[in-house]
Amino acid sequence: MTTIVVVHTGSVTVQPIKDQFKEVMADARIINIVDDSLLNDVRAAGHLTPEVTSRLYTYMSNAQAMGADIILNACSSVGEATDLLRDMIRTPIVKVDESMAEEASRIGSRIGVVATVQTTLEPTTRLIQKKAAEHGRSISVTERIAEGAFEALLAGDGERHDTILKQTIMALAEQVDVVVLAQVSMARLVPALGKTRVPVLSSPRSGVEAVRRALAAL
After folding, report:
1. Alpha helices in the chain (DSSP H)
2. Does residue 157 sit in the same domain as residue 112?
3. pLDDT number for residue 118
4. pLDDT in tens, 44-73
5. Domain range spanning residue 131?
6. Beta bridge partners of 201
7. Which CATH number covers residue 29?
8. Where are the bilayer-spanning segments (predicted)?
9. Same domain for 81 and 134?
10. What percent of the chain has pLDDT over 70?
11. Position 119 pLDDT exceeds 90
């Protein structure tokens, strides 16, 4: 049986990714490692820290010891740590947002990125710019923070989270060719958006599809 270990920095990403695996790879064994102090520490520092990277290494090393065929990093805020750890961990590591970033850079030259956490916004923007550069594409990125949405979600007020986020997405969609939702926790809003002027991309589905492709390539 295929074993996939998913490393989360908060509980809000667990169910969306589990749901996608049920649809895409129902026979796989999914193991979730959750440490919500990782994102809290990144947010407190304002950036990825060596201490957070070290703890991620420990979790991914443990995943390797568990016999994981693939490790999925579920958090964009610590995605750049994954780039370092790929050279240290034998098990292949997939970033949940990497495929989404590449797709966004293909769709258009004006890319909007929406986040509810500042520490996710900047790494996502850098990842999109990196993917565009790899393919020789010229892009511009417009960033937006949905102020107060993440705090509402943590407080259990999903309705307020969705209202703030929807307003931010719809306003940004008027200015760009594609909107990227920078966090897995935001994907649950996509069905409620209805018809939008431009594509709105989220990472759970594309991230899980990237895992499936990576496994097929092994």
Report:
1. 14-24, 37-45, 50-65, 79-85, 98-107, 118-134, 149-154, 158-173, 190-193, 203-217
2. yes
3. 86
4. 999 999 999 999 999 999 999 999 999 999
5. 98-203
6. 180
7. 3.40.50.1860
8. none
9. no
10. 100
11. no
